Amino acid sequence: MSNFQLLTIDGDPIFRLGLRVAIEQYPDLEVVAEVSRGTEALPVLEARSLESVAAKKPADLVILAVEALNLRSGQTEALAFCRELKSLYPNLPLLLLGGPLTPELLAEVQATGANGYCPKGRDISLTIEAIRTVASGRTYWATDAAANSEIELNAAVVQTVENSAAIADKNADDRTIDTPVHKKMLAYFCLSGLREIDATLAVVQADLQDIRAAYPTDLPSILDGVVLSGRRRELLAARWIVSQLLFEGKGEKAEGRRQRAEGRGEKEEIRSENLLNNSQSQLANSQVSAASLVVATNWQGSLFDSVAAKLQFELVNLTGLPLEIDILRSPKKRELMSSILRKLKDLLEELRFSQVQQTQLSQKMPAILRDLWEATIIDFFGRYYTLQTGETRVFDGSQTSLKLAESQGGSAADILAGSGVEVVPMLLADADVVAAQILDKIPMTVDFFAHLLFEIPLTVDNISCVSGSPEAMQRAEALLENLAIQVASGVVQPLLNNLANIEEIKQIFYDGKLISTREIERFRNDLSWRYSWDRYFVAPKAIFESRFWLFVLGDSGIKKISIYSPRNQELAQLSGWQLALTLLLETRDAIAPRVRAVISLLGAGVVYVLTQVIGRGIGLIGRGIIQGIGNSLQDSKFGKNG
User: Fold this and answer.
1) Amino acid 160: pLDDT
2) What is the number of other CB atoms lying within 10 angstroms of the CB of residue 431?
3) CA distance 630 to 417
4) 3-state SS of the chain: helix, strand, coil percent to 5?
């Protein structure tokens, strides 16, 4: 690969340092000179031309960085330098790094002879791509989604700034603002801080991409990725805060100008300052939004990293319902779930390569889930994993032996005689059963894959949430965890159906509390009862209540949550007992309030009778008895005295 020699021009030394450090990470790029102004670059280029007379150009690329290109007087000097540079060195490529451009400004830049333009707030990998493209003799004009959205967002804003600036320049002689020294220092440090944050953010982003490209499976690498993701978010938050401080200072300066204008009665200048202040605020917000858009492109990596980090905690089942993976040891659970995440990433890449359309997902989803299940089985057990079933092995009865024989094309007698059994083909033979009981019942798989492949917004509580937003990330994480847990259960189910009591399987995979034959059979019976209960009671009730039950990963284990989702089509397709159950629920909902009202009324009547009628009657009787006893005592007393 060719080595490109670069000359950078920027008035901020911290940004030049950060750019040079970022470029030094790539062996094919070299910064041979740095200057702060364009006028300083011309002598450097002349000296390099004299040193190498045979060279057609003194460098492979000149990078000119500007804060914000517009047609104000401060930036026409930069455009004039571009024209002068191209007139002196027509074969020397020129790349501009700057803020947002309107189509008119972009045309102005192209008219100067510049070979490319790249926004400053982009990911460093995209900036390096622009540098290599222009240095190799081609042109580069940012056309990615983030840059286009930023250009469209700021086109009107930049125009407003130009108009406001023209008004300000027109009245510059009438009012002079003396900015305090501490304000100037604040602005300087804010700008320098933004450059330093951008440089650090570029390094962190590069390290994070390297970790994700390696597909780490060990705990230290996964934790490093989580820490880098957190650091990236902190840098973005810091960048936003510094931007707010910078433009707050400018807002105070504009406030002082407004006060002077009010004193002089210059209402037109007040309106112009309002426009300028609002435009600057919008520019600051748009720059932060652009940085957020760059980060949002990696939301899928953050999604998988978050789920992978949760796998390092305990995977205890806290739902109160038996799951097939409960029989596995904790390390085997993590290994199985990690395998599912890896195979899901591979499957997504294959779907993108195959250019599957969004309208085809619903039809292809059963095959996609089955492919994920099969790939996980092969990866988890090993394609050629073979059981040596000698006479000393303990089998799961004659039924399992017959299943083994049928799957291997032999006889039960041959297996009991000691021939080997390949595990994977036997497990894959139960694909139809697993699909009917588990895979085809995983909720919202089409929406989840459409979100991952085409970034279709997820609907959360009837609200559309774009990819990368906190709500969409939370819902996507729950769907991914549920998918991984359900596929893991589908992997273990044929193992329990065919090889539940094989001693070698127990020693390698099973938890110590579930190795006896009695415990295994009890566990299998619990699973059978759970599937029957779900089919006849839980599933129709969930359809009637318009919700799905998901298994998710928490800090302390596997939990069960419910999410809202319209299920009217499924409700219309219910029949038999499931339909009868929904009718019973509807009848209960209709009758229960009335029954409760009647019972409440009867209860109130009973209370009234007991307290007001019977209670008062008993009170009167008691009172009469007491009075009678009192009268008798008095009569007896008077009789003795007489």
Assistant:
1) 40
2) 16
3) 103
4) 70, 10, 20
Burial class (CB in 10 A: 0-12, 13-18, 19+), 393: middle
Q: Provide the pairing of β-strand 29-35 with 4-9.
A: parallel
Residue 516 near residue 543 (C-beta atoms within 8 A): no
Q: Please write down the long-range contacts of 415-421, taking CB distance under 8 Å and 24 or more positions apart.
A: 415/389, 416/389, 416/391, 417/391, 418/388, 418/389, 418/390, 418/391, 419/389, 420/386, 420/387, 420/388, 420/389, 421/386, 421/387, 421/389
Reduced to 3 states (helix: H, G, I; strand: E, B; else coil), residue 210 is helix
CB-CB neighbours of 36 under 10 Å: 14
- What backbone phi and psi angles, to 5 degrees, belong to 123? -65, 145
> Encoding tokens for residue 110?
């192209």
For the record, the structure tokens of 7 come out as 């000359």
Contact call for residues 369 and 442 (beta carbons, < 8 A):
yes
How many whole angstroms separate alpha carbon 286 and alpha carbon 470?
Answer: 19
Burial of 519 (0-12, 13-18, 19+ CB in 10 A): middle
CA 447 to centroid of chain Cα atoms:
15
Compute the distance between CA of residue 114 and CA of residue 110 in angstroms, rounded to an integer: 6
User: d(Cα 61, Cα 30) in Å, to the nearest integer?
Assistant: 10
Q: What is the pTM of this model?
A: 0.51
Could you give the CA distance from residue 478 to residue 473 in angstroms, rounded to a whole number? 9
CB atoms within 10 A of CB 31: 18
Q: Exposure string (b/e) for 603-632, b if CB count within 10 Å is 16 or more? A: eeeeeeeeeeeeeeeeeeeeeeeeeeeeee
Tokens at 215, concatenated: 């597909």
Closest CA to 18 of 157, 198, 142: 198
pLDDT of 332-383, one tens digit each? 999 999 999 999 999 999 998 888 888 899 999 999 999 999 999 999 998 8
Task: Answer whether 449's CB lies under 8 Å from 359's CB.
Answer: no
Q: How far apart are CA 565 and CA 475, in angstroms?
A: 12
Partners of residue 640 on adjacent β-strands: none
Token representation of residue 112: 């100067």
pLDDT of residue 482: 95
Quick check: helix, strand or coil at residue 541? helix
- Closest to 28 (Cα-Cα) out of 59, 57, 1, 63: 1
What token pair was written down for 581? 């159950």
Pairing of strands 116-119, 140-141: parallel
- Low-confidence stretches of the chain (pLDDT < 50) are 1, 71-74, 144-179, 247-255, 257-258, 260-262, 264-273, 275-276, 279-297, 391-417
What distances in angstroms separate CA 430 from CA 422, 437, 481, one per listed residue?
A: 14, 11, 24
- For 92-104, b/e burial (b = at least 16 CB within 10 A) is bbbbbbbbbbbee
